[in-house]
């Protein structure tokens, strides 16, 4: 692949690059834009994070740059790491001196020494991320590409610059980065690099859960997340990170009856959903929606394979998974639990006659997640039979319009019964306890079943009648 010099010069025409040139030349240090910014520039992807490496002190170059940007820019530096950060408008520039690094076996923290540009490029993760463009005036725009990153970009190839065993052992997070880039960019992982991931997978254990989740999130947000999850499975990493998902894999046959591979199904659902939503946590719900299946799988001579109650089993498994993976328990667990536990409901509804009361109940239980639930359920239709798919999607349309109609009429989404426990206690001079709970839930059930409207007067009349049946007197009311 050839890259036009004019193209690079055009991409580096923003004033900030001129300022970086002046600063580097004033200090007489070699300076380069490096890594992801160069990769994205060639791929025509926009990026606001510029990494600058200089053969000298990154902090001094950042200070020299600051002098030219004045008080419009913000400066921060990290003496221990020898790095500095300049934020200018919406661009963040990270400065660091070129280094040679070596790693110890049990930590990602390297022993750092000053080095040449070549040393610095050697220690990077992939050839496509190991390119630099010179910023000094006399060589401005010159591309340094010692590992043929440009042709790997052209061939959509992910490959480590050095022996992959060294690159991955230096920083095992890179195994996940390889898979993430493959998923994000639609690239393939070159065979030797792939095999090294298989060999070194166990080293993922020294990586923090937060970093792992960060990469998983990026895989999840890529256009076809299944690419990443397939690779995670094939390399053996998924078994170490999310064994519950690997347990979905496989087909069993008994008496000539098989069931679908729930792992491939899950990935199809995820890809389907990726076409209709960018919501990260809704996509996570797709990953988890059938997670309970292996634990409830049964073979019945009449029914064949069944997965009864997998949605509840799956919901129950989520907390442990969230805890282990340090996923955001407080913010996201209840949302995913709701989606997983309810994901069979619209399908059942669409399959049978759609009654008002069933719709009301679904609305009540799903609350504000109802729209996301419908998207998940539509994505869950992965049948290969186009007639069946058509029929399901049509029925879902019915469910959707019915949901809209009932919502407008009854406002049951997030509803609280119009009479609360306190009022019931006062009305019947009751202490807090079982009876109050029963009366309260009788009102709720009557509204959800459509026996009474969701209004105060109707609820009160119904309450008095129910209480009379229970021989409760309403005292002075
Ligand atoms: N890098 C590396 N090993 C890592 C992380 C980063 O070698 N584990 C190098 C790569 O050269 C990478 C650069 O540091 O291009 C910048 O890293 P980062 O900003 O984390 O990632 P990007 O490659 O820019 O990609 P993205 O912004 O999509 O994360």
Tally the beta strands.
15
Instruction: Outline the biggest β-sheet.
Output: 7 strands, mixed
Helix content: 40-55%
In CATH, what is the homologous superfamily of the domain at 5-155? Answer: Beta Polymerase, domain 2
Number of helices: 25
CATH topology descriptor of the domain at 5-155: Beta Polymerase, domain 2
Bound molecules: cytidine-5'-triphosphate
Computed CA radius of gyration, to the nearest angstrom:
30 Å
Any low-confidence stretches, pLDDT <50, length ≥5? none
Under the CATH scheme, the architecture of the domain at 5-155 is 2-Layer Sandwich
Q: Report the average pLDDT across residues.
A: 92
How far the N terminus sits from the C terminus, by CA atoms, comes to 87 Å
Beta-strand content bin: 5-15%
Q: So what's the oligomer here?
A: single chain
Structural class: alpha+beta
Which strand order spans the largest sheet, edge to edge or round the barrel? 3-4-5-2-1-8-9
Shape: elongated
* CATH class annotation of the domain at 5-155: Alpha Beta
Describe this structure as you would to a colleague:
55% of the residues lie in helices and 12% in strands. The longest helix is centred in the C-terminal third of the chain and has 25 residues. The model has no long low-confidence stretch (mean pLDDT 92). The chain is α+β, with helices and mostly antiparallel strands. 34% of the residues are buried. Helix 2 packs across helix 4 and helix 8 runs antiparallel to helix 11. It has a 7-stranded mixed beta sheet. A two-stranded antiparallel ribbon has the order 6-7. Strands 10-11 form a two-stranded parallel sheet. Among the domains are: 151 residues, Beta Polymerase, domain 2 (2-Layer Sandwich); 86 residues, Hydrophobic Seed Protein; 49 residues, no CATH class. The structure holds cytidine-5'-triphosphate (CTP). The site of cytidine-5'-triphosphate has 11 residues, from strand 2 and helix 8.
